[in-house]
Amino acid sequence: MKNIFKLKKSLFTALGVLVCLFGFISCSSTNISSTNNSGQVLENSNSNNILLTNPNGNTDDNNISISDISDIPVYSGEDYIILNNNVPNFSESDLTTTSFEEYSPLDSLGRCGVAYANVGTNIMPTEKRESISSVKPSGWQSVKYDIVEGKYLYNRSHLIGYQLTAENANDRNLITGTRYFNATLMLPYENMVADYIKETNNHVLYRVTPVFEGNNLVATGVQMEAKSVEDNGEGIEFNVFVYNVQPGITIDYATGNSALSGEEIVETESSNNTTNSTGSSNNSNNTNNTTSSNEETVIRGNSKSKIYHCPGQKDYENMADSKFLVNFNSEQEAIDAGYRKASR
């Protein structure tokens, strides 16, 4: 009996050693580092920071700590940068369940300042957006390039999107922004905030700060901050800087003049009637033509429905920010492209 007890004890000891050894091997083999597309190791791939090219991503590789908004680094190819670990600069006393909106007065150069709101369902739009074509933000030029979606380089970009505060032709809330900046970079954040408010009926503290270098008339970009109030940032929280850029185009932010990348920027006498058009991909020459046409006379087509809208028609202004927008210089051009006119 004594020998059997010793045998059992030895077996349990051996089993314990095997269990420990197996655990050690398992712990060592499951510590696998993830990498990004450039092969860099991501030490913390589960952070809550927003990806620079996707507002729903998860990486903090491009997080930047700054003491002042003027410290924003020069654009280096990243469309967004994350500021201060994605935490907005709101204090506890700023959090309120009372909706409001505030817009800074234009400065001596006609430039917008901070736009600040506590967005709730009670200040969100209940009607379709009206025309904003009467506003000419600082640095505004009606200029076209074939390589730009919808052809027009610049949009009248809302600091706080219409879908959040229902502001139409408010010159304190509209800046000169590229099509890419307006429809591709800012819009996902605005959609995220709008969807959250509609789904929860909560409020989101929201602030957009345009950054102009020196006396530049066109903003380098905007700082976007947001925090959901009732759940203290659990639903929405971000602090990013979005660069006002357009792929393939070089911009003179001092004036709003522009050119295809690699070509010389030519100053224009008028800031409202310049057209830059490129031919096929085999022709890199850029031609500048002064015309009497401007953005307000363009025909707006929907590439999905193949329907075009003329100025004054019901959905003309709504098409301005559509991802299916195609612009034509005349109704005949739209018809020749296979489009038909909207009934209203």
Throw out a few tags for this protein.
344 residues; four-stranded mixed beta sheet; 17% helix; 4 helices; disordered N terminus; alpha+beta; seven-stranded mixed beta sheet; globular; Extracellular Endonuclease, Chain A; 19 strands; single chain
Summarize the structure.
This protein is α+β, with helices and mostly antiparallel strands. Among the domains are: 63-249, 3-Layer(aba) Sandwich (Extracellular Endonuclease, Chain A), CATH 3.40.570.10; 298-344, no CATH class. The chain is built from four helices and 19 strands.
List the SSEs and their pairings:
Elements (H helix, E strand, L loop, with lengths): L1 H28 L4 E2 L5 E2 L20 E2 L15 E4 L16 E4 L11 E5 L34 E5 L3 H4 L8 E5 H22 L3 E8 L9 E8 L8 E7 L5 E3 L6 E3 L13 E5 L7 E5 L8 E4 L4 E3 L15 E4 L2 H6 L3 E2 L3
Parallel strand pairs: 3-4, 17-19
Antiparallel strand pairs: 1-2, 4-11, 5-6, 6-9, 7-8, 9-10, 10-11, 12-13, 14-15, 16-17, 16-18
How would you describe this structure to a colleague?
It is a single chain. With 344 residues, this protein is of the alpha+beta class. Among the domains are: 63-249, Extracellular Endonuclease, Chain A (3-Layer(aba) Sandwich), CATH 3.40.570; 298-344, no CATH class. Helices cover 17% and strands 24% of the residues. It is built from 4 helices and 19 strands. It has helices spanning 2-29, 162-165, 179-200, 331-336; strands at residues 34-35, 41-42, 63-64, 80-83, 100-103, 115-119, 154-158, 174-178, 204-211, 221-228, 237-243, 249-251, 258-260, 274-278, 286-290, 299-302, 307-309, 325-328, 340-341. Strand 14 (274-278) and strand 15 (286-290) form a beta hairpin. The chain is globular. It starts with a helix and ends with a strand.
